[in-house]
């Protein structure tokens, strides 16, 4: 089996072992956040930072449905001047938590994405979130690390190859965004049917 074939085979095997109960917990938490008009914050480093930004893009745009309230979501990875300011003046470990201190409202959700689960800045963001009563979610790979231990909802990918972990996290985020959009659309149907009945 060549390298390319092996890579995709390992991705497929990991997806087949995806913990469905944990995935559903994450999906339920995002839907509950939408129902209460909470903000979904997402953070990560490196490839996971790209996944965080992409996830927020999809949560914000893919879920748009006519007549429906839009999803509140922010990627804590995207304000580069602010990230560099906190890194330079204080600590890179504080780049996410310091943003949360300014933006967080009661009932918001914090999603941290980390292959290793041990990045200090995402761990600190989740620790802070737990302390203030946020709903905290951790997407991890490898052994899950500290993030998997402390996140209220943990979705751990049983894979030890970083590019593959990042691929699967991206796939999960796509699935979650599509699922949330479908839930929003379904929630509108009673109102649509009622309007048709009244008009008819």
From TrEMBL:
Signal peptide: none annotated. SUPFAM superfamilies: SIS domain. It comes from the Bacteria. Residues 26-186 form the SIS domain. Keywords: Isomerase. One of its GO terms (molecular function) is carbohydrate derivative binding. One of its GO terms (biological process) is carbohydrate derivative metabolic process. InterPro entries: GmhA/DiaA, SIS_dom, SIS_dom_sf, SIS_GmhA/DiaA_subfam. It holds the Pfam family SIS_2. PANTHER family: SEDOHEPTULOSE 7-PHOSPHATE ISOMERASE / DNAA INITIATOR-ASSOCIATING FACTOR FOR REPLICATION INITIATION, SUGAR ISOMERASE (SIS). This is Phosphoheptose isomerase. It comes from Chloroflexus islandicus.
